[in-house]
Batch of 2 targets.
Target 1
Amino acid sequence: MLVLTGISSLVTNDLTLERGKLGVVTNAALVVGDDNKIAFAGEAANLPREFKSNAIDINGRALIPGFVDSHTHLVFGGDRAEEFEARMAGKPYSAGGIRTTVAATRNSNDDVLVANARRLANEALHTGTTTLETKSGYGLSVVDETRSLQVANAITSETTFLGAHVVPAESQINDYVDLICGEMLENCAPHAKWIDVFCDRGAFEVDHARAILKAGANAGLGLRIHANQLQHGGGVQLGVELGVASCDHCTHLDSADISALADTKGKTVATLLPTAELCTRSKFPDARRLIDAGVTVALASDCNPGSSYTTSMPLAISLAVLNMNMTCDEAVWSATAGGAAALRRTDIGNLAVGSQGDFTILNSRSHIHLAYRPGVKLVDAVFVRGQLVAGSLR
Ligand SMILES: [Zn+2]
């Protein structure tokens, strides 16, 4: 049992409120029961007497649900610092740079891949991320995609098969799509919860993406799609057609795409990845237009060695507010409950009674500081299932 009082501002993301509302309680208390689930979240004045004796006072700091980073690529070898340097010196970003990481990943043994993925997951944890999704996609062969997913399973249960990241240099596209839908899927599906396709310029076109996602659904996997990042195309419409949990990137959308997403009534989330735009000096997605149209929006890091080598959800929140016209409340909701919605989960991303005891104590009196103080380390303590796993209560 863990009892915390002295919470200046408690973000509950109360699921009974409309999406995007934080359900903030001031002068609050939080209790995690012995089952590691939230037993009480509300005004300290209403804290039941039986919880009062062992309470720990956190001295007027804010407490928020742990971040749910619903889109990362943490299984890879090497890095691409030189490519980054060249791009910053004026060379444009294209999806082909992925092949550099494919070569490095194929040349790394499992221990090296696990150590790298763990290092990044731990880095994410220290900035308040308590759940993350991660993908294969740098193996692009039956053997290397399968072992990439085995590595992914060492750090999270939210694992995604992304054999359809790009076509590997040694393959023809039609042969490779057949391989993904056949032998590769057969080997990878037992280790994955989701399947994803990069449907964009330089990657997979809509008809191939449809065939791959349908094969994944037949193999029992949930669906996600990388869509409309580099240019406008049919990726988002395909995602809606297939009822995917999340269309990710959504940088280049027209009004038909936005209405299609809105018409799903939150079944298909638009996951925005502002650090990818930041790190490629690209145009940011129009979050305001999506939210005003009624689309459910998540924020995620897209952590990968090419286009967004950061695990920081606070940075994504800052960018969403400062560059994408989201309000502070919307950005924090999208980084917590929004990410959970993109993973079709209600047991995380909120602090309702019965939810998992995953949360973060900030070194500030409110969640607003996450956007207001960009680049500053504001995470004092991180709890997963009611246990302190990073930082300290001091
Ligand atoms: Zn991605």
Target 2
Amino acid sequence: MSGTLFPRERAVVADGAVHVPDWLPPERRRALVDACRAWARGPVPLRHTVLPGGGAMSVRTVCVGWHWQPYRYSRTADDVNGARVADFPGWLVGLGREALAAAYGDGPESRGYTPDTALVNFYDSAARMGMHQDRQERSPAPVVSLSIGDACVFRFGNTANRGRPYTDVELRSGDLFVFGGPSRLAYHGVPKVLAESGDPSAGLPRGRLNITLRETGLR
Ligand SMILES: O=C(O)CCC(=O)C(=O)O
């Protein structure tokens, strides 16, 4: 799946929502997988987030910079082990700026983009993510999403509700997806992971890794 016969095209899925296939070259995928493995070891471990109703999300998550728990950000992982999350590294700010420039073009928005949190999600083949909005951030800056490993169906919807209209996009290893502007609060989710479609050369023989970079707007 990672080596494609025909190049896939960049696509504007909705106003402000752009899919850039194969954006991450293999060496950057491997470096990100290594970084995610290190974050998953601590200071806060990779865990299934528990929702207010008591159910646990099927994906496993670790956060960098700010810790997300339903439905707020904090510096410490009070719903896990109380530890302060890993600092957000400068190189990840640089990666976010490059990603925004690739999606929207190089300009003041990409140069000024300063993500300060990353949600690192690991999906096994049974994991899913329901339709939701990313709305705990006070900043209106775009969300940058990077995918590595198994492909998935990424459902990108509208800003009014979880239902139709939506577009299903196949996100594969190395793909970038950015949503901002009029699409910033669009509902989105992952109804399916395509098991064993992945990218062993990225250092992830099984499963899917998704990293979303965001500006929280918090101090
Ligand atoms: O895994 C994905 O592609 C989406 C992740 C996501 O929606 C989130 O972290 O809020």
